[in-house]
Amino acid sequence: MIPLAPLSLASPTPASPPTPAAPPTPGQADGRLARSFERRRAGATCGLFPYLTAGFPDVATDRALAAAALEAGVDGFEIGVPFSDPLADGATLQRANARALEGGATLDTALDLAGYIRQRAPDTPVVLMSYYNPLLQRGHRQVAADLEAVQADGVIVADLPPEEGASLHQGLAERSLALIPMLAPTSHTARVRAVAALDPAFVYCVALVGVTGARQDLSQTLGDFLGRVRAELSAPLVVGFGVATPEHVRRVAQLGAAGVIVASALADLVERSPEPVAAARAYVSSLVVAAHGRSSDDLKDQGLPEHR
Amino acid sequence: MIATFTPSPPILAGSRFGAYGGQYVPETIVPALAELEQGYRQALADSTFVEHLQSVLRHYVGRPTPLYEAARFAQRVGGGPVWLKREDLAHTGAHKINNAIGQGLLAQRMGKRRIIAETGAGQHGVATATVCAMLGLACVVYMGEEDTRRQALNVYRMRLLGAEVRPVSAGTRTLKDAINEAFRDWVTGIESSYYLIGSAVGPHPYPEIVRTFQSIISQEARAQALTAIGHLPHRVVACVGGGSNAVGSFAAFLEDACVELVGVEAGGRGPGLGDNAATLGAGRPGVLHGAHSYVLQDSGGQIGATHSISAGLDYPGVGPEHAHLKDSRRVRYHAVEDVGALDAFFALTESEGIMPALEPAHALAWVQANRHPGVTLVTLSGRGDKDIHTVASASGRQEYLA
C-alpha cells in the first residue's frame, strides 16, 4: 500500500486546515493597490488594468503604450515577464513572449518598465506577472528588493499555487509587497477559503477554464464563479483571461468585480496595427470608459474616438 | 517465479522526492491533480484493477520481457558480462507501453473518454494511441514539428491507430513544446480529458504514477537476474531523457546498496548550452512543467534549447526523482555524445542482431566506453526501427538505403 499524503489545499476534502497566512504588513505598496480599489469602489465602478508584455513589441513601444494607457486613465498595470515556456498562455501571448525574448527582454526589462510607469504615475499600482522560474533563479529576496527599487507593488505568478508560494510570499511580505493569488472556476470552496486566509491585496480570478486569449463571449458561469468566491472572501476580485471588448468589461463591472485585466486583445491590436500606440490609446480609452461606467459622450468630450 | 506488477511505495515526502517535485501549475489544474491522485490511489488499492493490469501486461504487452545475455557484445566491449532487459520486445517496441497501459486503465476507471499525450521520439505517442485503440478512447497526441519530421514512421503509426497527431510549431518544436501544448489542451478540457504524460516528469502525482507503472522493469529484472545469473548485477545502466525507463529500471534496486546505478544522458554535440540534453550534468535546479528539478536554462531562468541525435532524450528537464537520486548520490549520471550512441547502435546491431533505439544506445555506449568488470545490466528501452533514417543520414552509411 502506498501511504496517503494528501496536500491540504489540493485535496477535495482537506484533512487539515489551510496554512495560516503571514501577518499583513501594511505599507506604501499595499496602500497604492488599496487606494486604487478604494477610488473605484467609491464611484461604484470597476478598475481597468491593461497587461503589457515587457519587451513586446520592443522597449520603446512598450513605454509609449504605457504612457498612452496612463493618459487613457487606467487604474493600474500588469507587466508580463517574458518566458520561454508560457504554458498558461494562448497563441497571442505565446507570440508576444517569443518576440520579447528574441529582442533580448528579461525580468529586468519588466522591472525597468515598472520603474518608467512609477516615474510618470506615483500612485498607479504596478504588478508584475511572471512564470515562476525566472523569479526562482533571481532569488525570492532579490526579486523583492528589485520590485521595491522600482516601487512596484507586487507580483502574480501563473504557475505558483498557494501550496508552493510560501517562500516567495515571505520574501515579498518583508518589503510590504503583494503576492497575488489566483483562483479559477475549478477551484473548490476549500481552496477559496485557503486564499482568503492569505489576506491578499486582491485575488486574480481566472474568467474561464482554459488558456489566455481574446474570446468572442465571456463564460456564462462567470457570475456564479465570482459569487462563489465573494461568499468566502472580502478581498477585491480582479478578473482576467478572455476579456476583449468594452462590452465584456461592462459586464464584468456589473458582476461586481473590483478590476478587470485586458491582455491578449491588446497584444493582438499592437501586433496587427500599423500605428500600435494610437490604436492602443483609443482601445484602452474605450475599455476605461466601460469599466468606469461613463457614457461614450464623455469619451467624445476628451476628443478620443470610441474603439469598435 | 517471475515478478508481476506490484504497487510499491516510492520514497516520497508529500508531493516531493527530497527537495524536488511539487505542483507548480496554474490554479485551474490543481484540483484536477487532486482528482488524479485520488483516482490513482483508489485504483492501486483495488485488487480487481491491479489483477486486470497484471493480466493485460502479460497477455497484451507480452510481459515479462526477457533478460538476455549479450555475450558477443560483451566480448566486443572487453569488460564483464552484459545482460539486456529487453523492453524492445514489449508490444509497440518500447517500455513506454507499461505506463500507457497503466494510465490508460486508470483514465478509463476515472470515467475519462478523451486522452491527451505528448511525444518526443513517438514511442509514447504510439503506445498511447495503441492503448486508446484497445480501450476505445479518443486520443490526441502533441508532437514537436521537428520530431514529426525525424520520426515520420511513428506519426504514421499513430494515425493508423486512430490518434489525431497535432504538430507543435512553437518554441524549439520538440518534446518540451509538445508538453506545453498538451498542458494547454488539458487546462481547456480539464473535466473531461485525461493527460497521459509519458515520462517521469510533470507535477505531482505524475512522476510517482509513471514510476509506479515503469517499476515492473526492475521488479522483473531483479528476479530474473537472481534466477539466471544467480546473484544481483554489479550495476544497472539506463538512458535518461525525462527519465521514465531509468526510474523504472532503478526502482527495485534502490535498496540494494551493492548494485551500482548509472544513468546516461544525451551529450549531443558537446557541453555548450543548446548542444546537448544532459540536464543533470549541465543544468541546475529550476521549475519546468510543474516540477522543481534540474533544468537546462540560461542565467535568467529561460529554458534552454537542447540537441540530441535521439528525439526521446531531447528534453531540457528531467524527472524530480532523478534530481533527488543525483543529489543523494545513489545514482551516478554521465553523458554520452551523439557519435558514441551511433557507434553503440552499430556495435549491438552487428554483434547481437539487435537494433537498439538511439536512446538506449547511449546506455550501451557508456558500457562500451568503460569496460567494467562484473555483471552489467542494461535496459534496452526500445528498438531502433524508428531511427534508421536518422542513423543513415548521420553515419554516412546511406549506401544501404536502396
Task: Write structural notes for this entry.
- The complex is a heterodimer of chains A (308) and B (402).
- Chain A has 308 residues and is of the alpha/beta class.
- Chain A has one domain (31-301): Aldolase class I (TIM Barrel).
- Chain A is 45% helix and 12% strand.
- Chain A has helices at residues 28-42, 59-72, 91-102, 107-120, 132-138, 140-149, 166-173, 189-197, 222-230, 246-254, 264-272, 276-292, 296-301, and strands spanning 47-53, 77-80, 126-130, 154-157, 178-180, 182-183, 203-206, 237-240, 259-262.
- In chain A, strands 5-4-3-2-1-9-8-7-6 form a nine-stranded parallel β-sheet.
- The N and C termini of chain A lie far apart (61 Å).
- Residues 1-29 and 299-308 of chain A have low confidence and may be disordered.
- Chain B has 402 residues and is α/β, with parallel strands linked by helices.
- Chain B is built from 16 helices and 14 strands.
- In chain B, the strands form four sheets. In chain B, strands 3-4-14-9-10-13 form a six-stranded mixed β-sheet, sandwiched between helices. In chain B, strands 7-6-5-8 form a four-stranded parallel β-sheet, sandwiched between helices. Chain B has a two-stranded antiparallel sheet with strand order 1-2.
- In chain B, helix 4 packs parallel to helix 5.
- Chain B is globular, with a radius of gyration of 19 Å.
- The mean pLDDT of chain B is 95.
Task: Map the helices and strands.
The complex is a heterodimer of chains A (308) and B (402).
Chain A: H1 28-42, E1 47-53, H2 59-72, E2 77-80, H3 91-102, H4 107-120, E3 126-130, H5 132-138, H6 140-149, E4 154-157, H7 166-173, E5 178-180, E6 182-183, H8 189-197, E7 203-206, H9 222-230, E8 237-240, H10 246-254, E9 259-262, H11 264-272, H12 276-292, H13 296-301
Parallel strand pairs in A: 1-2, 1-9, 2-3, 3-4, 4-5, 6-7, 7-8, 8-9
Helix pairs in contact in A: 2-4, 2-12, 5-6, 6-7, 10-12, 11-12
Chain B: E1 16-17, E2 20-21, H1 30-44, H2 47-61, E3 67-69, H3 71-77, E4 82-86, H4 96-109, E5 114-119, H5 123-135, E6 138-144, H6 145-150, H7 152-160, E7 164-168, H8 175-188, E8 193-195, H9 206-214, H10 216-228, E9 235-239, H11 244-250, E10 260-268, H12 279-282, E11 284-288, E12 291-295, H13 320-327, E13 331-337, H14 338-352, H15 358-370, E14 376-380, H16 388-395
Parallel strand pairs in B: 4-14, 5-6, 5-8, 6-7, 9-10, 9-14, 10-13
Antiparallel strand pairs in B: 1-2, 3-4, 11-12
Helix pairs in contact in B: 2-4, 3-14, 4-5, 4-9, 5-7, 9-11, 10-11, 14-15
